[in-house]
């Protein structure tokens, strides 16, 4: 009630908070009512279904740390004890939790430190600005990486303004979690630590606790170094990201600032937009006019993370993807919110900039709903075509791990899915001649071959198999495949 009786800027902050929460409710509703998934999300489902030893072995070959998968797996196993086995709903809940936690931090920590107006602007930005809606409902680790980096940056203010043991402990724990969630959230946390060190040295502050905290983070990360070495060896042997060019760097900027009207699973580039350019100009102007130490750190982190990613890409192999910017988006919007709130009395600046934010948020929300609905429709068309051709006890042979995981966990779970990554002809022959498969075929089961990226259908045809292609609606994005019925009578 005290807030409702506050000054005009506080009241406007409350209005922005309510608008932000409306966007978050929309995101939540869409997340729970549309279930289009892509290959990376299917991989998350695969990880939580693996026995623990296989979970670790598979995790070592991935290119991300294991904390997110571990949390997801624990929650899934607990839910199974209660008789609930829907990993998709659980995954959506898990991905949404960090955004709700950031809203809570906004209403508590940010409001306490910077006022209700800054809190309201940040709540709107963290709920509705580009890309956040998408990654808030994706079954991946990005929303958690966003939370750990953003929360640690929020607590950094306490360490600058009024350092205390509690804030140092929380800051250190958040940093460790960040490093175990995503490698570029680890990079972001590293940048925050280094920039904070520069601040301490420049202002002749005590360094003992900083070194103790940094040492704690390093020691805590030692168990992960073996995994990191394995994963980076894999990356150095080749990765799927295209070489970085000037167009790629420009795309990084508009990935963050333009309304998200398309998902970016691969090497698609985001073109400049007028509204995104207006926001970029606004951010530069705000920073130029009102920057301070704390907001300077936020913008430097946002610049340094992709810069480090670009350097690594040139030294090793193209390695930095646009979505790796998601962990630092929160730092950008904190700095932006603090600076914009300082212009409250200058309505010629404040009103146009907040209007730009609201326009981008609204356009992005509409596009987000369209994308999710299109993904759901795409999966529905694909599943309908599969069901028209396949029964519930058929045998489906795959030559690509992505389609194999998609079929056995999402599309065609009630069939027997089999995967071979080599010796395809020999393995298919052995499968068809096995007693178990012959028994199923004699009882009416059909055998299908899903030809992934490798285009192995010709191998089977050359070996004498009669393959009858069936038309399947192809997904909007992800792994493209061709489906064939194997004529077992003539195989």
TrEMBL record:
Entry keyword RNA-binding: no
Residues spanning the membrane: 12-38, 66-83, 89-107, 114-133, 139-156, 168-201, 207-227, 269-288, 297-318, 324-344, 349-369
One of the GO BP terms on file: response to iron(III) ion
The UniProt record lists the keyword Transmembrane: yes
Stored InterPro entries: LipidA_mod_glycosyltrf_83
UniProt-annotated location(s): Cell membrane
Name of the featured protein: Glycosyltransferase RgtA/B/C/D-like domain-containing protein
Organism the protein comes from: Methanobrevibacter millerae
């Amino acid at each position: 009630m005290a807030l409702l009786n506050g000054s005009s800027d506080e009241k406007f902050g409350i209005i922005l908070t309510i608008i932000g929460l409306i966007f978050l409710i929309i995101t939540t509703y869409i997340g729970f009512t549309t279930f289009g998934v892509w290959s990376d999300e299917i991989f998350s489902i695969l990880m939580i279904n693996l026995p623990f030893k296989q979970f670790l072995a598979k995790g070592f070959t991935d290119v991300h740390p294991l904390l997110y998968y571990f949390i997801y797996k624990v929650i899934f196993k607990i839910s199974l004890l209660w008789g609930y086995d829907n990993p998709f709903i659980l995954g959506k809940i898990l991905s949404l939790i960090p955004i709700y936690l950031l809203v809570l931090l906004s209403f508590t920590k940010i409001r306490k430190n910077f006022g209700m107006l800054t809190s309201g602007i940040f709540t709107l930005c963290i709920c509705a600005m580009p890309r956040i809606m998408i990654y808030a409902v994706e079954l991946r680790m990005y929303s958690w990486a966003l939370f750990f980096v953003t929360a640690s940056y929020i607590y950094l203010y306490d360490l600058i303004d009024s350092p205390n043991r509690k804030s140092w402990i929380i800051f250190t724990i958040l940093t460790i979690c960040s490093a175990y969630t995503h490698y570029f959230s680890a990079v972001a946390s590293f940048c925050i630590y280094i920039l904070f060190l520069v601040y301490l040295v420049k202002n002749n502050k005590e360094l003992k606790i900083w070194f103790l905290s940094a040492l704690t983070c390093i020691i805590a990360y030692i168990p992960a170094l073996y995994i990191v070495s394995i994963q980076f060896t894999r990356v150095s042997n080749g990765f799927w990201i295209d070489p970085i060019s000037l167009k790629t760097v420009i795309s990084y900027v508009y990935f963050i600032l333009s309304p998200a009207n398309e998902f970016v699973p691969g090497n698609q580039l985001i073109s400049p937009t007028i509204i995104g350019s207006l926001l970029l100009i606004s951010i530069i102007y705000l920073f130029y006019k009102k920057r301070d130490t704390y907001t300077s750190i936020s913008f430097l982190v946002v610049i340094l993370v992709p810069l480090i990613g670009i350097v690594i890409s040139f030294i090793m192999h193209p390695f930095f993807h646009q979505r790796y910017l998601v962990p630092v988006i929160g730092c950008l919007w904190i700095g932006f919110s603090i600076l914009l709130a300082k212009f409250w009395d200058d309505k010629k600046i404040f009103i146009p900039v907040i209007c730009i934010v609201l326009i981008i948020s609204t356009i992005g929300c509409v596009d987000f709903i369209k994308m999710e609905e299109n993904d759901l429709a795409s999966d529905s068309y694909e599943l309908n075509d599969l069901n028209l051709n396949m029964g519930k006890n058929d045998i489906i042979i795959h030559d690509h791990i992505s389609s194999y995981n998609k079929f056995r966990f999402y599309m065609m779970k009630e069939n027997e899915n089999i995967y071979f990554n080599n010796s395809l002809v020999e393995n298919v022959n052995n499968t068809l001649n096995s007693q178990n498969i012959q028994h199923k075929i004699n009882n009416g089961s059909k055998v299908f071959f899903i030809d992934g990226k490798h285009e192995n259908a010709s191998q089977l045809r050359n070996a004498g198999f009669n393959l009858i292609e069936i038309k399947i609606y192809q997904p909007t994005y992800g792994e493209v495949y061709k489906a064939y019925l194997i004529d077992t009578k003539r195989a």
